[in-house]
Design brief:
Strand content: 15-25%
Helix content: 25-40%
Shape: globular
Structural class: alpha+beta
Largest sheet: 4 strands, mixed
CATH class of the largest domain: Mainly Alpha
CATH topology of the largest domain: Cytochrome-c3 Hydrogenase, chain B
Low-confidence stretches: none
Number of helices: 17
Mean pLDDT: 93
Radius of gyration: 22 Å
CATH superfamily of the largest domain: Cytochrome-c3 Hydrogenase, chain B
Distance between the termini: 37 Å
Strand order of the largest sheet: 1-4-3-2
CATH architecture of the largest domain: Orthogonal Bundle
Length: about 500
């Protein structure tokens, strides 16, 4: 029996805006489930470990019907499970991180190097294991980067400390002249112990921590956490709160696209683009600060609803701002597409073919630019997206130019959605207080942030958080960046990197 057939005999989906099932499997069924997902055209969203109720490893898969949370209990004496990286390459780093945090290892995995453990804790210390207390720093690890040999091959190490204000990440280039033969990343420098910290917070307050996982996605993470909590509590939020949450999510999407479009112009030598988009983004953030009380919309989404509302005059001002912004973005798009020097840098740089994107699991905005038409707002719409019918921006070239095009089109579509939401806000309460259940329960939040799918898996027991795992789409996309750079010249790396604009902080919990 395949996993998809088995859904007919499993309990009803978890209470959530989209269909989500939780199933417990054996070791043999763990691999069979992964293979059946592949056969059905599904994909892996996340893999993580838990010690909330004994050791276990879990994976979240997307199929046509919805999302399946597959969990494999493991014996404490031998916490080993079958490797998934051979089926889903994106699982490799997730498995390495799980081994560092919980000592749960993937049997047969080709790459078992540490991922999060940089010497901040000893090799025998497991930060998420029950009873793990404070620890002293371990010994610095000489990370075994893959060596590339040959005539004229040399290495260029970049980072982990960078010249700008970006977060730390190490990039090891193997090059001949300026041509990149291989790039290998090492991340995890900003590991902050967030997953452990969740278990020390009351569930009704932990949305504030979720909203600080990755500052540019504060709405998406708080939204996903609250969705998971409300799912675990069986709490339905008021209709107006659902519409306002969608509004906040689109406002955040626009802000980030404006920033990226300016930075991409600047990285390709068009400082005018940076100046104009920086101005537009700053005006946008000031509007958000005035209307919602926070420029980045932090803490506006709360358990059971929202903490901010718009009156009629504020909604009208925001709609007019959308009209003005759309005109300016259209004019700047014409300039970008008509600028020969800019297009020369954009076109063919950092290309990820649709075939490679599918094999490696590229997701979100970058995936849509490589021919993978996946957007939860369209594929598995939750209210009010099921009534808004958002359009999906896609491209097939998979290069910097394609990722820029998708950003322009998504910005315009988000502005349309914002205006439609503003004109359709229902009258209802803003919040319904969730009632924490007794006993053990679980919930899952899953949504399309501006960068891609954000997932939060939450386990509660007697009103306390036993485990909260938050997953950023950068987990899937960081490894793809290594492939996108191959064959390009070293000076194009900042441009290619920015065209993905992946999160360090969201990855290095």
């Amino acid at each position: 029996m395949t996993l998809l057939e088995g859904l007919r005999s499993t309990p009803a989906p978890l209470p959530a805006p989209v269909p989500i099932w939780h199933v417990e499997v054996t070791g043999e069924e763990w691999l069979a489930a992964a293979r059946s997902v592949v056969a059905a055209g599904g994909r892996l969203v996340a893999l993580w470990g838990s010690a909330a109720d004994g050791l276990s490893v879990a994976a979240a898969y997307v199929i046509h019907a919805g999302l399946i949370w597959v969990e494999l209990p493991l014996p404490a004496s031998a916490p080993v499970y079958p490797d998934l990286a051979s089926i889903f390459p994106a699982a490799g780093r997730m498995q390495r991180a799980t081994a560092d945090l919980l000592g749960i290892c993937a049997s047969g995995s080709v790459d078992q190097r540490p991922w999060f453990r940089h010497g901040a804790w000893p090799a025998d210390y497991l930060p998420l294991h029950p009873g793990a207390g404070a620890c002293e720093a371990g010994e610095s690890i000489d990370y075994p980067f893959v060596k590339v040999a040959g005539d004229g091959v040399h290495e260029i190490p970049v980072g982990p400390v960078h010249a700008g204000i970006i977060e730390p990440g190490h990039f090891r280039f193997s090059v001949v002249g300026e041509k990149v033969l291989r790039l290998e990343e090492r991340l995890g420098y900003t590991h902050k112990g967030i997953e452990r910290r969740f278990t020390q917070l009351p569930p009704l307050e932990a949305h504030r921590l979720a909203g600080r996982i990755s500052g540019d996605s504060t709405v998406a993470y708080a939204f996903a956490y609250c969705m998971a909590l409300e799912s675990a509590c069986g709490c339905a939020i008021p209709e107006r709160a659902a519409w306002l949450r969608a509004l906040l999510l689109e406002l955040e999407r626009v802000a980030n696209h404006l920033g990226d479009l300016g930075a991409l112009g600047n990285d390709a030598g068009l400082a005018f683009g940076l100046a104009q988009f920086s101005r537009l983004r700053e005006e946008w953030l000031r509007r958000l600060g005035e209307d919602f009380g926070h420029r980045l919309l932090m803490d506006r989404i709360v358990p059971g609803g929202v903490a901010a509302d718009l009156d009629g005059p504020a909604a009208a001002r925001l709609a007019r701002h959308c009209d003005s912004l759309e005109r300016e973005v259209r004019a700047l798009r014409d300039i970008y597409e008509g600028h020969a020097g800019l297009q020369d840098r954009f076109i063919a740089a950092g290309r990820v073919t649709p075939a490679l994107a599918g094999r490696l699991g590229l997701t979100g905005l970058a995936g849509r630019a490589s021919g993978h038409a996946i957007d939860l707002r369209c594929d598995h719409p939750w209210p009010p997206y099921d009534r808004l019918a958002p359009g999906m921006a896609t491209h097939r070239n998979g290069d910097v130019a394609a990722r820029v095009t998708v950003r322009f089109e998504e910005t315009q579509e988000s502005l349309r959605l914002i205006r439609e939401i503003l004109g359709s806000l229902p009258n209802s309460a803003l919040r319904r207080e969730p009632q924490l259940p007794r006993g053990k329960t679980r919930g899952l939040g899953w949504m399309e942030g501006w960068r891609g799918e954000v997932l939060v898996a939450l386990e509660l027991e007697d009103g306390a958080i036993r485990r909260c795992h938050c997953h950023d789409p950068s987990w899937q996309n960081w490894p793809v960046l290594e492939h996108a750079v191959i064959g390009n010249i070293v000076p194009d790396f900042p441009l290619i990197n920015k065209s993905f604009n992946l999160s360090y902080s969201g990855h290095d919990l």
